[in-house]
Amino acid sequence: MLREEAQLVSKDVFSQDRSCAQLIALRDGFGKGVVRAGEKNPNVMVICADLSESTRSLWFKEKFPERFLQIGVAEQNMAAVASGLAAVGKIPFIASYAMFSPGRNWEQIRTTICYNNQNVKIAGAHAGISVGPDGATHQAIEDVAITRPIANMTVIIPADAIEAEKATFAAAQIDGPVYIRYAREKTPVITTERTPFEIGRAEVYYDGTDVALVASGPLVYEALRAAYILKEKGISARVINNHTVKPIDEKTIAQAAQECGAIVTAEEHQVQGGMGSAVAEIVVKTHAVPMEFVGVQNRFGESGPPDLLMDKFGLRDSNIVEAAQKAIKRKKRPA
Amino acid sequence: MAYVHDEKLKKLEETAATIRSDTIESVIIAKSGHIAGPLDMADVFTAMYFHVLKHDPKNPLWEERDRLVLSNGHIVPVQYAALAHAGYFPVEELKTLRQFGTRLQGHPHRPTLPGLETTSGPLGSGLSQAVGMALGFKMDGKSNQVYCLMSDAEQETGNIWEAVMLAGKHKLDNLTGIIDRNNIQIDGMTEDIMPLEPLREKYEAFNWHVLDVDGHNIREIIEACEEARAIYEKPVLIIAHTIAGKGVDFMEFKYEWHSKPFTPEEAKEALHELRTLGGKIQSEHQ
């Protein structure tokens, strides 16, 4: 059942019809979070590459015009300029679509921000296939794979708009490079202001012992729905919101592997090199148990309504249920 | 910065000669590393660390200091030699260049060595970082100057022009770029590989003020930096015309020496020539 201390929204959101959920876009969480961070610290600033409205950087610009830098369509410049600003004491958030930043400017991020260890925050908007009509060129589904292996980097995938706001604010409070990915489309709100959030700590939202569903981003909602469906089938699933891919919460994952004996990961990203791969690294070196991976399966996205794309790419509660049953079947039976 | 008297100039030229020979010695010991660029920028680095920059080697993180950003990180051996002679770390440490466990990495890594302002190597992103620093100082109403040393070949990257455009947009008169115009790059002469000219007009078109200097004339370099500080509401570019491999006869003007290692005989000859050069400067001024 839902953990009380997680302080999530009503369980109806997960057990009843999808229409019960309130929908807010994660990017709105960025917009609000970065304004809050700016209110707290006068060194926080935002740099945007000609996408201020759609990344919600505009909200910061309206509040703090003197701390907003419009850099034009120049993502490589954006990353390295941010490094220079951080070198003189600023805390820059660089905001663009994840496809362009960290997509196009990966080397500048690696050399001038991470290796140089400068305090820059990378806000990657429009991550995932739920970007919709723009199609594959604008749907970043490899961004976690390219940011996680860079030393000094922290990588966060917030689950909903409220968590996105908390993650953005929290990123400004730690010293060092952080990458946060945000989805474009409105997605269900599952957490509340009271839900705990701490960078580097995965949260168990639903208790269970037969299988652990480790999810991130908007797929946490799908995993919670899957837990209710599995319950009807007599399967007890644990749901974990693994929002911080790096540094990953080894303890919570190892414990889930040991106590549940099977794991399903779920994310809106390629399964190669995604959050699931990070979980697998922990599982195989602690308690090796069967795993299944729900995510984009080695293909590009495409144009279409976000809802239909999520169905087509197999990123729904039903896909997680299926994967859970498969993983449980693969468990070793006691001799 | 004050006027350079003849006596001071002579001292600077001697320092440049020492920095040249220490640079080449460190590269010889390392058995790898670039040579031509470091040699031709010895005079610029000397002018910067021994006259132009406001800095304090005993307090590398002094808030009031000017910032020197090295964009083409591969010429860092000459910066290491300049930093050591300026007092940032022991001159003896130059012998550890590129060795296991050294602070003197093959390409500069800011967090490990005092005096370095950035981390560089991959070409084309130093000017962006310098622009970021200059913008930050402007935002805070501070008067620190930012200098960015670049190679000519890295003007072939797109990233440079993104930074050039931004500096022009914000009229960063606290920023001075210096290009080592030695005309060579790994595969040949710049004008064959990818023509850069008219370089001056290109920067001017982006609202920069451009000065040309003899990159081996320390007085000219210093005077150009002084003029740059007087320019209002425009970033300044100094094109330092240099001779690749300057100071070693058999290397001068030859692109092959961009990053080729010495044979032991070549090493001996190069060192001998550079040490004699030091003596020549003394006698010329006497």
Automatic annotation (TrEMBL), chain B:
Keywords on record: Thiamine pyrophosphate
Keyword Nucleotide-binding in the entry? The reply is no
Q: Where are the transmembrane segments?
A: none
Q: What cofactors are annotated for this protein?
A: thiamine diphosphate
The record's annotation in Gene3D superfamilies points to: 3.40.50.970
Transketolase N-terminal domain: which residues? 14-270
| Keyword Ribonucleoprotein included in the entry's annotation | no
Q: Which family does it belong to?
A: Belongs to the transketolase family.
What's the protein called, per UniProt? Transketolase
Q: From which organism does this entry originate?
A: Candidatus Terrybacteria bacterium RIFCSPHIGHO2_01_FULL_48_17
